[in-house]
Amino acid sequence: MTSSQSGHRADEGVGPDEKLPIKMLNDRILVRLGGPEGERRSSGGILIPATAQMSKRLVWAAVVAVGPNVRAMEPGDQVLFSPEDRYEVEVRGEDYIILRERDVHAVAAERLEESSTGLYL
């Protein structure tokens, strides 16, 4: 069966200007990094550039969307993950990261107060 027989042409792909809704699948999580990648601030407010990072440092990001099988996170939560366990994607001109739920090491959210460890962001 050729592409013309299936009703779709090969050149009818979804372009970057398309405004189609996006749904995350399975255990996937769409997150956005807060500032320029790798930059962070010390507790005293000093900006530490990405070039000063130590290897194997985990990163915090905000959850934008979750798939139907994600159990421990919701949009708006903050998640801690390794920058090595990710896939980068651009959606409507903004950069996002796609993670699997199993690649997330910790979740920070107000709704978790009852079972918190006593650590706060």
Please, could you describe this protein's structure?
It is built from no helices and eight strands. The strands form two sheets. It has a six-stranded antiparallel sheet, with no helix packed on it. Strands 2-3 form a two-stranded antiparallel ribbon. The radius of gyration is 18 Å and the shape is globular. The N and C termini lie far apart (55 Å). The chain is 0% helix and 32% strand. The protein has 121 residues and is mainly β. The chain has a domain at 33-115: 10 Kd Chaperonin, Protein Cpn10, Chain O. Strand 6 (87-91) and strand 7 form a beta hairpin. It has strands at 28-33, 40-41, 47-48, 59-66, 78-81, 87-91, 94-100, 104-108.
Q: What's the helix and strand layout?
A:
Layout: E1 28-33, E2 40-41, E3 47-48, E4 59-66, E5 78-81, E6 87-91, E7 94-100, E8 104-108
Antiparallel strand pairs: 1-4, 1-7, 2-3, 4-5, 5-8, 6-7
First-to-last CA distance:
55 Å
Tell me the radius of gyration: 18 Å
CATH architecture of the domain at 33-115: Roll
Q: For the report, how would you describe the main beta sheet?
A: 6 strands, antiparallel
- Broad CATH class of the domain at 33-115: Mainly Beta
- Reading the helices and strands in chain order gives EEEEEEEE
Mean pLDDT, as a whole number?
75
Which structural category do the helix and sheet elements fall into?
Answer: mainly beta
Tell me, what's the shape? globular
From the 3D structure, determine the CATH topology of the domain at 33-115. 10 Kd Chaperonin, Protein Cpn10, Chain O
How many DSSP-defined strands? 8
Assess the beta-strand content as a share of residues: 25-35%
Q: Work out the helix count.
A: 0
Low-confidence stretches: 1-13
